[in-house]
Amino acid sequence: MSWRILYIENSHKVSLYLNNLKIEDGDESYVVPIADINTVIFNNYKMYMTTQLLCKLSQANVCVIICEKNGLPEVVLNPLNGSYVTFRNQELQMNLSQERRDELWKCMIETKIANQLAVLTEMGKDRVAFDKIQQFQEEVLAGDESNREGLAAKMYFRALFGKGFIRDPKADDALNLSLNYGYGLLRAMMARSVAAKGFIPSLGIFHRNPYNHFNLVDDFLEVYRPLIDRWVFENMISQFFVREKRLQLVEYTSKKVLIGEKKYAIMQSMDIYLDGIVSYMKTGDALTLKMPGCMVFDNDE
Asked: What's the CA angle centered on 224, arms 289 and 89, to 5 degrees?
């Protein structure tokens, strides 16, 4: 599997050269084999990039992320051509019964809260908050009708980042900005996996915002969010979200997580996670789900 994550910021031109991504910066140029690239992040809104390169990256199933002026991910490139499973998986998605939708959402929320609890444990946080959040996890109903996710999240963020912290995607403090950036990276990676599996990204299991083209992506992403929370807690307390931190967070997304007893690169784990969801859609058997944990491992482990 491809392994490199490229973060391209200062170059003025990127193009295709003999199945390589060519980076030009003044009189200097570099080439990277496209076969080695997992993700490429373009963070220079004045950069010139050729359509030939973008098409080749799409064909190679590379996750392409384009950032806006503030450095946050804004665009993810997805191919129009589907795979051989496109129609089959779209049919499963569209015909999924409400009962199975509700059970799937319940399993995802239980996993998300379990991963939040793992983060609190690893960071040595308040046991009282842990016990209450664990109670919320045990009370999750089909479809999360009683909104245990929301209650757990409110208590979790305060336990992790302090009682004064409020999770607000529109806030400009370092903690919220770094959470936004990390979630944005994982969202783009999940969008690539969703497209590769042939799903309809706008047709969600739970999220149903008519103005959101990635409702399904946001559904599936929930279980991965605690990965970013952990990094932010370990790296961003009382610090500004500067360029160096962005690069560290980009590198972090190349690490491995556990599914079952095996370790997979985060993007590869998303493909396996979605394979489990496809199996569940077919059978209704929750045991076929393959949920990721939030323990993080280096690539050489």
From this structure: 45
Give tens-digit pLDDT for 89-106: 999 999 999 999 999 999
Residue 43 sits in a domain whose CATH number is 3.100.10.20
Spatial distance between the Cα atoms of 256 and 192, rounded to a whole number of angstroms: 18
Question: Could you list the residue range(s) of the whole structural domain that residue 166 is in?
Answer: 86-297
Question: What's the mean pLDDT in 206-233?
Answer: 95
pLDDT band, very low/low/confident/very high, at 236 (cuts 50, 70, 90):
confident
pTM of the predicted model, to two decimals?
0.90
Same domain, 121 and 232: yes
Between CA 71 and CA 265 the distance in angstroms is 24
- Angle among Cα 196, 4, 12 to the nearest 5 degrees reads 100
Say whether both 18 and 105 belong to one domain. no
Judge if 142 and 261 occupy the same domain: yes
Query: DSSP readout, 151-200?
Result: HHHHHHHHHHH-TT----TT--SHHHHHHHHHHHHHHHHHHHHHHHTT--
Please list, in sequence order, all residues whose beta carbon lies within 8 angstroms of the beta carbon of residue 117, skipping any fewer than 6 positions away. 130, 133, 134, 137
14 with 134, same domain: the answer is no
Would you state the structure tokens that stand for residue 184, as one six-digit string? 């944005």
Are residues 159 and 135 both part of a single domain? yes
Highest average pLDDT, of 22-26, 38-42, 136-140, 197-201, comes from 136-140
The total number of structural domains in the chain stands at: 2
Predicted local distance difference test score (pLDDT) of residue 196: 86
Residue bearing the bigger pLDDT, 227 or 84: 227
For residue 296, list its beta bridge partners: 257
Enter the tokens of residue 251.
């590198």
CA 204, 208, 211, 217 torsion-angle sign: negative
